[in-house]
Write a sequence for this structure.
């Protein structure tokens, strides 16, 4: 320590507070930097879906699911939906719970940073990671399982809105779910367990038409089933619609369910979000 | 503020269910002052400070921190206060310099991150990850994050709990340096020597109430309390008298012995005696 003194300056009206947008971008940049340094989290969030896709694809992939569609293609579409949920729901659920527990949320709340900048930063971070995850899984699908990228602009439009609505819905549910774990240590299992179960029920790990009907009913309540269905409509040939239990791609219903979860997730976040863990 | 008062609290109350954590506190902290809120664990220190920081809502009373009610503190108000919180070692995977620079962007007129790190003695650790710091270094980083916005008023809640003696001395130096810079500081502690070493004024809090306040030298009537004068009689017996006029008694003894009084001592209660007396009187955990 040296003898530097930090002279106090009294605030004046001329002091301009930095804009919420700029701080939000700054939050996003530092979140991304910190995320990619956490090697375990990166391996878990990016590695696991890719490895599962290769494993499932290698075990079941050559079976034709009928109508000129391979099981490998089905898995790829489903796994991209699962990947979107991993980088949004799973990652936010665990990381926000950890930040609440280790005091980072309280510390940020004690500064003049606007709260919207925190959430905007999370949005930036989640979007970057989700795009990276999706590109990675598409590459794996194309390399091993004859995944064909759509050429029609209409299909890319469908992909874009399913991607954005799905990311938003899962991200908001993730932030709301971060209040459930009682400690940082329990965050990973509390968030990951229901997510894993939901992936089986929603046709991510198993072709959806072989999921028992009662599980399909449960899955239909949550966004993941609708996201994977929508992505199948993008990445599979048109005739694959015959494999859908409902016999249709149901784009209108997908948008409706995801939209409802965005509204519901937002309400849940506003109602349950705490800057400080309750047991302190 | 304008009238030289940084914090003004009157009749502050806070209950959690059946427990009254803060039971009618009045405080006034002058601009540029180092004020210590001293009391045992569970006395209501942290609750009081968290209300002043805007983290908790109060049930009753009036509070003005830098002229504003913390319950409605806006960003401009937050830019003028600094809060030192304890960062867990499981923070983000960032370096010391990165997180200090990041926090500096939140403020309209931050200090230069390099100077802040210099001040807290972390220049050599600027490129280290937070996860690689020792406990004492993490606490200095906590202070760096609390002062990087160049606050007019700094809150320090139990800043040296768990420090070894050497780290505490260093930390005290840091607080004194901030005080010299003109920062108003509200410090909570359950260490008596810390309050005595750092504070211009001390308020002793027990069971949610201020039981005494004043300068360390006069706290709880320390200067005016009865003194004990003790000496040895010619027979070798130790005699002790409590008196409000020790000087008169010593002069009289000097006359009686015709010179040096054997084994003479004059003592007043130590701050610790007063403190234990004050918090003991409340009779709660």
């Amino acid at each position: 320590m040296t003898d530097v003194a930090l002279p106090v300056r009294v605030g004046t009206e001329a002091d301009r507070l930095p804009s919420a947008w700029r701080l939000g971008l700054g939050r996003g940049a530092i979140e991304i930097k910190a995320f990619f340094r956490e090697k375990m989290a990166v391996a878990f969030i990016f590695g696991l879906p890719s490895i599962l896709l290769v494993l499932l694809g290698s075990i079941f992939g050559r079976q034709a699911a009928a109508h000129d569609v391979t099981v490998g293609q089905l898995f790829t579409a489903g796994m991209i939906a699962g990947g979107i949920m991993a980088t949004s729901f799973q990652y936010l659920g665990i990381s926000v719970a950890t930040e609440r527990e280790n005091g980072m949320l309280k510390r940020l709340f004690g500064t003049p940073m606007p709260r919207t900048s925190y959430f905007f930063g999370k949005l930036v971070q989640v979007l970057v990671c989700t795009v990276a995850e999706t590109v990675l899984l598409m590459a794996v699908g194309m390399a091993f399982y004859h995944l064909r990228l759509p050429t029609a602009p209409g299909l890319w439009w469908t992909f874009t809105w399913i991607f954005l609505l799905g990311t938003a819905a899962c991200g908001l549910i993730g932030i709301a779910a971060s209040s459930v774990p009682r400690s940082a240590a329990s965050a990973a299992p509390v968030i990951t367990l229901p997510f894993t179960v939901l992936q089986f029920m929603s046709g991510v790990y198993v072709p959806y038409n072989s999921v028992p009907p009662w599980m399909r009913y449960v899955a239909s309540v949550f966004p993941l089933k609708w996201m994977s269905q929508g992505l199948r409509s993008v990445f599979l040939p048109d005739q694959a619609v015959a494999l859908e239990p409902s016999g249709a791609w149901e784009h209108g219903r997908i948008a409706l369910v995801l939209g409802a979860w965005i509204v519901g997730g937002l309400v849940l976040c506003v109602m349950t979000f705490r800057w400080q863990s309750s047991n302190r | 503020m304008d009238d030289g008062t940084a914090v003004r609290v009157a009749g502050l109350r806070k209950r959690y269910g059946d427990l009254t954590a803060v039971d009618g506190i009045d405080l006034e902290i002058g601009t540029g002052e180092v004020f210590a809120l001293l009391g045992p664990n569970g006395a209501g220190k942290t609750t009081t400070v968290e209300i002043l920081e805007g983290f908790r809502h109060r049930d009753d009373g009036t509070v003005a921190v830098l002229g504003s009610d913390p319950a409605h503190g806006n960003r401009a108000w937050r830019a003028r206060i600094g809060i030192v919180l304890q960062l867990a070692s499981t923070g983000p995977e960032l370096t010391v310099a990165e997180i200090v620079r990041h926090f500096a962007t939140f403020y309209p007129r931050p200090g230069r991150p390099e100077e802040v790190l210099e001040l807290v003695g972390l220049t050599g650790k600027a490129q280290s990850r937070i996860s690689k710091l020792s406990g004492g270094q993490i606490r200095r980083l906590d202070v760096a994050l609390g002062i990087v916005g160049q606050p007019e008023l700094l809150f320090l809640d139990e800043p040296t709990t768990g420090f070894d003696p050497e780290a505490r001395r260093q930390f005290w130096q840091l607080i004194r340096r901030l005080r010299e810079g003109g920062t108003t500081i509200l410090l909570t502690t359950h260490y008596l020597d810390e309050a005595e070493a750092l504070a211009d004024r001390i308020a002793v809090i027990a069971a949610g109430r201020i039981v005494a306040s004043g300068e360390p030298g006069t706290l709880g009537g320390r200067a005016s309390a009865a003194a004990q004068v003790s000496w040895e009689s010619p027979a070798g017996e130790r005699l002790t008298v409590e008196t409000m006029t020790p000087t008169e008694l010593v002069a009289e003894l000097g006359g009686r012995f015709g010179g040096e009084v054997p084994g003479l001592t004059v003592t007043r209660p130590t701050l610790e005696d007063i403190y234990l007396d004050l918090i003991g009187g409340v009779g709660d955990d």
